């Protein structure tokens, strides 16, 4: 049974008793995962069981998720730019931005898209309050026109359209996570909040997914990193999206209250050390689990069991720490249905374990079954084996078979390497709590998403900049995921370094040679206005980083970007967090093993295409490589040159490793094409623009003009 | 003039014009630091100029800093433990917790304490709302007594006392950042929120301080990492505490609005790429700066200047990108007093720079001075040199001397290494924007603070656990910082590996040999009830990690932990953020250069002591080392054994590298002492307790009992 089902299944509370394990199964139980999410949802309306996701529209939610981020959670320069746009009469120019990342995090080959729900909430609540506008007035020039502030006061996102990858989808470099369209001033203001809401959410979901892949489907993963989170809301975000990425529960109550994340928790060392052993319980009597039988003095019963346990373990009866035992009894009196032992406060073998066993056996005598133990120090794997061994012998000795399979939970700064050890074949560990290493993502604590203007007024826009990898791809794009018909992944194409080798690699997706369903082949980016790729039809694509095109015949084609908000209106209900979590696990299963590798994986291909039009377009998802130059041309297959305010085709030269500040004579280069709205004025100022002469498909040269020397502009 | 002064000094707004540089000085100006903080404060009451910090009590603030974290921002196990305490009748037992870290972050030798203000706000607003209690009822057993929930509803922090290091103080491993006392149930509930509020705040302040140390006092540092922050509130925390740690301003408007952090920002590449060059400004006319003279068509004026600039630079007049220039003109029309150029959208040398110069010179003709340029790609240092060179020649050519010193700002994933390069002697960079590398602390994204129970009902408590470094020091402590009379730091003691060498290292703090004032010597931890160290008196201390004691004669003794909240009442006003920032800079100046090193610094010593009592106490701020055993003794200097519920002295054996799971015969060991409330029952269950026999000060052996064999307990 998955945690999903558990969360939404019947709970103990509904059935009249409380046992956090009732729906979890013995071998992979939660620490104390509760049924909150199910009950919380039930209290808001119809249960989820027979309800389609579409029946839970965003608009119907009475803001159950806490306060949305506000418009001032943003960088000041958006406001100074807003004044600039407004003064220039451009506030309402239609504009398109795309939010994407340039490299997968953690050295892996995939990321999970997340944060959409928070973004939609942000858009829908976007309003500058009077206090916000007053603050802005205090930081802008005092002579700023009052009409500008009136404009700000009236702003909302009613003109904003949002397309996005569904939360839990696989995401790859260059493929937009969000496409945001609307009035230039507003969509510019959205930049930083959207980046803030998407970037960390996707990072943490991806991190959690990696940990889930390592742990395998059976181990229960508990996120417990709130105390190490980067700020209070960082903790809330981490708990929410580590659940989305594949964790089973969180220790963070606020994530339970606001987001419906299953919460879990038992006791800490401080609870145990707070008892010296001299404390007297105000009521040590406990009734049997079965019903209103005679109550028993649990503490006395425990002492009797301790003697038997110590004899069996070869310990002196005074060795186990009395304070620890009194603490266990106090906890058992509060949670007889869910007694839990934290074993390593003093000594696992000589104190924690015998004390736990004494209490568990005393409870067992009354019909209660202990639900788990936890270790927080030492060699976790080895101790788990030893403890399981003791459980088995004690279970046999005292005829309590349930004791054998009491879940063993571990924690203590567990990272990917330690997790792999704990999840190995034969491990007796059932539950793994991870804190710092899931919430702070120490391998790479930021995803580095960017939000780039790709068109204004329907005209593509791009930034060239001094760092080629920071250049952007112009034009609003459509994205498609091409799938083969097989269940296995395609052979990873190895792109040849020179064009003489393997000029066209055929990806292994031909239906006649592969019989499985749904494996991912590659993602294709193209301009939004182009016809989409068709299933079963051969397609030529230019994979990122490749020197040659390849052809692929997909069995299925999935459009990736869905329309969620149109002109401020929610178009379809957002999936619930649990649904996004399920999608994430489904998506990960479609990745080939080589793409799932956490170290040095095969890169998943994102390509430009298709070849449905006579003109070849090469899209480079990472921006122009350093060996690329953008230049207009009057030559080449299908090329046109016309700079008089009509879209023209631009030659896109990819040149092997050149230094742009020197003239060059590459030995090979090739030509592909790209749509770009090119005005005469746009042509100017491009680096390396003047003086470039196209010569042939296999060679070209650049004479870079020097100051004072001028440059010979290409015809434009 | 520091940013402090600038923030609280008169602003342009007050003087009728807006120029973000008016109070900043040309060589180290902000990008566009505003006078918000001063005005914001002024609008809330008397200005800060003549007001003492003490006049700003916490209680008088109408929550200007936004919503405090709520009680449910916590781990579930605090609530399950709360039920356990409550059921055991221990909810109101007086308890003491200490919050500290075990190792300085980033491999450095210091940290800055931060987050106190947020903690106090949290304590003062701590209340479980009905919705919170309802949520808790949904995750606790359904048969939980209603009286428990009544207890929760009535909870507040009126019984809580808080001692802490002032924000901005230097903090070292093991020295409590916070000491929290109060009813056991409540102070247990505070654990995770306080950790969450202190840990990241201190981490980010320390990170910012390191960056400030690298940058030196002259460069202006701007935090601009909100988009990469780990969650929205992570961004707010980062902006707030990077300012505390030494940054000058933040791009984050919310940090300005809620925390009074100076904010800064100008324009992004998207503003520039949004202009193609064909846009027509609705009002291109600009009046002179001096007054109501005839208005001038700025765009036309810029075109005229462009020709002159291009001739001078040897560029064709069509090379600079027209769209970029039109964007600059639009920005200049919105901010004539604060025109700013972002140079690298297309090409710095051939487009951004000439366009900036044309606009700046046109503005100059009208009496306005441009306030800065920014570079976001390429070799920032080299480009800054080149740009400064161009500024100088153009300034001379066109007789505009102010142009020479227009500030150059840079950004682009700047880390410590790149910052050191940018801050080197002769660098022409004036302003440095840092995002990801300040807010996410990628070198170490968490501080790892812990919150440990040290006493209950006046009785010390400790955890032993399986990992010696996770063991805690029992008892509520006092902490003192010992200072020499010199301005230089003491020689760093190098502790000898064997006791035969340097048995007592005298730290170099004798007043007769050092004449400067206020250098830090070391921190001393002792039990709260012991008399404090006295200035001028020799003191014996046991530095952490050292095998021997040393003596020190401090010129000054500073108690480190101040009482901020007593029984829920604020005892003294909290310093403002700006005051804490000033304290941080002051504190850092007291560190010796060797402790300030960012790589492999000399470790600052934290010692146990003093020797005012006949009994020696060795405190180990990192918990017991792995080579330590805690055992009772009837022998040794000053040792007493009495386990009948009175405090007794416990021998603390430190043994060189032993494996506790085997019997041992160390060749050397030595003895020191520690107070521990020792009950007969407490003695049991300690690891290695039974069978240990103390033999002498230089050798001992342990016969570990085996299962079934029993152990011979030491007399107790």
UniProtKB/TrEMBL annotation, chains A, B:
Organism per entry: Diceros bicornis minor (South-central black rhinoceros)
Domain Nicotinate phosphoribosyltransferase C-terminal: residue ranges: 516-606
Pathway stated in the Swiss-Prot or TrEMBL entry: Cofactor biosynthesis; NAD(+) biosynthesis; nicotinate D-ribonucleotide from nicotinate: step 1/1
UniProt keyword annotations, A-Z: Ligase, Magnesium, Manganese, Metal-binding, Phosphoprotein, Pyridine nucleotide biosynthesis, Transferase
NCBIfam families membership: NAPRTase_put
Function, as annotated: Catalyzes the first step in the biosynthesis of NAD from nicotinic acid, the ATP-dependent synthesis of beta-nicotinate D-ribonucleotide from nicotinate and 5-phospho-D-ribose 1-phosphate. Helps prevent cellular oxidative stress via its role in NAD biosynthesis.
Reactions listed under catalytic activity: 5-phospho-alpha-D-ribose 1-diphosphate + nicotinate + ATP + H2O = nicotinate beta-D-ribonucleotide + ADP + phosphate + diphosphate
Name of this chain's protein: Nicotinate phosphoribosyltransferase
